[in-house]
Fold these 2 entries.
Entry 1:
Amino acid sequence: MVTRKMDVEEYVVQGFKASAVAAGLKKDGGLDLALICSERISVGAGVFTLNQVKAAPVILSCENIEKGAARAIIANSGNANACSGKEGLEKARRTALLVARELHIPPDEVLVASTGVIGAPPDMDRISGAIPSLVRELSPQGIPGASQAIMTTDSFPKMSRFEGEADGIPYRIVGMAKGAGMIMPNMATMLCFLLTDIKIDLQHLRKAISSGVRKTFNRISVDGDTSTNDMVLALANGAAENGPLSPGDFEVFEEGMTSVMNELATMIVRDGEGATKLVLVRVAGAASEKDALTAVRTIANSSLVKTAFYGQDPNWGRIMAALGRSDIHMKEEDVSIWIDDVQIVEGGLGKGAEAEREAANKMEKKAFTLTVDLHQGGFEDRMMTCDLTHDYVSINANYRT
Amino acid sequence: MVTRKMDVEEYVVQGFKASAVAAGLKKDGGLDLALICSERISVGAGVFTLNQVKAAPVILSCENIEKGAARAIIANSGNANACSGKEGLEKARRTALLVARELHIPPDEVLVASTGVIGAPPDMDRISGAIPSLVRELSPQGIPGASQAIMTTDSFPKMSRFEGEADGIPYRIVGMAKGAGMIMPNMATMLCFLLTDIKIDLQHLRKAISSGVRKTFNRISVDGDTSTNDMVLALANGAAENGPLSPGDFEVFEEGMTSVMNELATMIVRDGEGATKLVLVRVAGAASEKDALTAVRTIANSSLVKTAFYGQDPNWGRIMAALGRSDIHMKEEDVSIWIDDVQIVEGGLGKGAEAEREAANKMEKKAFTLTVDLHQGGFEDRMMTCDLTHDYVSINANYRT
């Protein structure tokens, strides 16, 4: 859960190489183009944005990964290649083609991901000019560099890893992600690449990525917006050469994938645009699964609740008001609310000034939990969110200028 | 549409009196308790918050107005009397009872409205202590004072009026409102009182208030939250002594009510917490009425779009992204977007840097229009919204402290 100094060797995965360059797509001259490549064809699976407006790289990668196999990912920051029409889609295809030629692989084994400003196709000359050096510089130690090249308003690169054994053979899962704004259930301006050397079939890889996304990236919120460019891609190259997975092996792998995604998702919220607080919102006692999810989402996305987090104010009236407008089955007089272990509401009523003072103290920490018990049934859900701050406004009022 | 110096005589309505005092409910010692009273029993109608968590005064006033008649409104700021349980409801009833006694009218002819901090019942001693002087100071010129006493984070009092004729007899409609935060479709921490001396039956008064609310207060948004305390109350005391309304007379009255509510609603958005821009969001060419409303709401409530308004940035990519996640029938390549009369998107694609520069110039104004044409059908809708600013965060992070 803590950002740590990266030891490049920690993030090496057998049979994968990566590289990153500054191609000039970002105005600040930082790293903005990354290539990740497996030595052999990999089993590949992806989860993509639900936004109806899909960026060109989303359309292309969705197409290319459908067959369940891939070898390379080229990702850029600085330009989202979204709302860029036919020209944008052609540029995404051209990018895949140039990478494929340079790597001597079929173009449909290349996945493309982009993040950055929406509304104009990227500068193709800069991309094509940088591809040869990207390929030249591919190295097993290149993964952390790639994680830097996909950052936009992120303040730190996000990586996580897991080590497991399957069929008695050790394997690794390494994940990288970028996040920051437009983070909302059903993904975000969020890219996540998961690389593993386990040998696994497509059906199981898809199962692991789906259940992981549902529990992690679909349970975080920064500002309630959903981006046009989200994707989670997983490549499993089988370099570990393990035999078939036992049910127990798969369970460990699935948990490993989820733990990597969970660490990355948590980093994304912690690094939410302008965020100073990481808040786990939990709703228990809901009458249905849907009610539980609706309730956590409404609280986690309320501007008034999120500014109260920023102000370290246990303003439970705003939480009650959010619940009341969330269209769930509830009774005001049944609601209990806690900040960490301090109960501030019981039976719909405030527990008084002393409890609120204690809760305010808890809210001074960088991370705390808000728990609501509706006492209407047995369903619960949770979501990670952050506070709404002056810096969020500054970052988003000035992003393009 | 412009805040103007109040001429108290302008806001006199035959047969109504009002007064305001500082009862000590607000920490700053400002006016915080208002009484409005009709000399005779009035036809009364109301529209109340859809939030499931309803403040005590909402429950009481809803009950008392059901019979279609009322004489007085007592309204306080500083305390919302919401999430205050049985004690809160008893205090609201007690308030109505004390006013009724002092005015020598039945308690069920008194409506109660409250706004302010949620979560504790109001200080009853301060209210009961102030009622005698409130009644003593009732005056036909007291309406503007009452409009000040209902302010919370409002930066100016909000009043509007309309003069019409019915059956050849002149009448007046005077409205007051308070708004500021938690403003979102389906009302807001929003109180609005409409006073008229027209003689009208209950059915027509209800019709006029409903259609007015739908077109005005349900089409504004500040932060996407909906309050526990919203209400619009209309009292028609019949002092004009006009005869039955012709269809034409009713039409004029309905338009008059809507224009008063529209002016008040516009003032509320203009005075949205921290707002510096007033933006009319229009969506045309939607495939259905529902799609048109969903699209304007999603745009008008997007934190990313609203920070771009603040930054005077015609960031149409964020508008496209909002449309894409709004679950409406749309095709990216059919979308056109304008800022005032400057087209920035055609066929889903940006019109280029020159158009964006022109649009950015339009956005420097305090008020502008954002128009989206989906080209999917013949339905349209509109909503007033404001920008999301540093001051919004400051006001809401520090509201209770």
Entry 2:
Amino acid sequence: MGTTPPASLTPAEARSAFRAGRSGPTAGWATGHTQANLVAVPADWAYDVLLFAQRNPKPCPVLDVTEPGETSTVLAPGADLRTDLPRYRVYRDGQLTAEPTEVTDWWREDLVAFLIGCSFTFEGALDAAGIPLRHIEQSRNVAMYRTNRPCRPAGRLHGPLVVSMRPIPAPLVDLAWRLTALLPAVHGAPVHAGDPGELGIKDLDVPDYGDAVRQLPGDIPVFWACGVTPQAALAASAPPFAITHAPGHMFITDARDADYRIA
Amino acid sequence: MGTTPPASLTPAEARSAFRAGRSGPTAGWATGHTQANLVAVPADWAYDVLLFAQRNPKPCPVLDVTEPGETSTVLAPGADLRTDLPRYRVYRDGQLTAEPTEVTDWWREDLVAFLIGCSFTFEGALDAAGIPLRHIEQSRNVAMYRTNRPCRPAGRLHGPLVVSMRPIPAPLVDLAWRLTALLPAVHGAPVHAGDPGELGIKDLDVPDYGDAVRQLPGDIPVFWACGVTPQAALAASAPPFAITHAPGHMFITDARDADYRIA
């Protein structure tokens, strides 16, 4: 791999690098390939998670669900969900207890893994249309915020909508809106553009997940529903055990972004 | 109600007519309002149905899932799922045992109801664009066929993809394709246009559900994934008990078709 820029790696090469211990946010990696959020819960919580996703499809577009104990997915044959992400989070009773780079020792036979669409998927479409991506320009993770909008609860799961924010030059906001609307499997159109206060976000410089991203003059903050939403629900709802990706540290699948474009 | 044409009824008026005992297919009723397939199964089958839907989103776009025993839905406040459809099917061990016009006596406290998007929803968009709807012109139910394409199984549920077919004048097929692609929550773009043999359909004049619909010269048969697919899975997989709508006899919700258009 050596000096190959992350953008031109194949998904298998990227996963192999993470399996070998490399870490870091995956925005801009393996361009054109679909990245996914990971949420793995004990089987007796799987219905709650799947129903929560159905009831909150913008933040939780489900791309695949594994059988209990399975560690691979149709989205990336040969991949191992326990080792092939750059960083994980392990939760016990809703408390974050570890942030390892692999979870082989934590994995359980009753875990059901959910792979959920990620907004990194549409960044290729934005970039191709000439829309600047400030967090990539600034070599930062995307900024994510808990909002004051509750998700629709499902069974034992409840929690707030989490959004990712990208500063976009005002004349390009409409184009960004239309391009991402065509990708409902990866969050679709924004939920809001403009005043962060509308979403209950007090200070854009203090994100709840990821990094603060600097706006340039003339930029408007644009907010998309975010796949970290189920993590916020796990923290609020406290299942006995869960494993997720670390925010921004996604699972890179073999699927192509174009596969999820609906028109 | 009297002589009010079904197209101009409100959803509540249509449901009230069905509750009072009126029956018949709902194509063309309460124009602009979203119609839904009903599948109700015992709670211990709910995860299988929801996962089957996630794995087969084109035929099974889930619009709502009720809590066990609940008989109403956020899609139509005040409606009663046991009485407000024009006709039902009751299954025991995968066998069709009754086709009543209400199911109050059959309903159980452990039933979870799934409301699944219906292709009638996009017929308004086709009609508005000048695309003729032959089954409505001919006062027939839409024609539906089991195909030779298996759905991706989920738990105990497996079965074939079922499609609805509309004959469309050849020069308008592309427009129909593009218009419905924008409605992924109600089956989206067609799965096929042209030779029925590609889907293993031997004779268009002998549909598996609904009525045969006559093609006019120059028409091409266009096939969309159909919300009867979960019924075919119930028949193939034989849960101990299930209630569904009768094919073509849908639940008319208060939601508007436009709500499901993604761009």
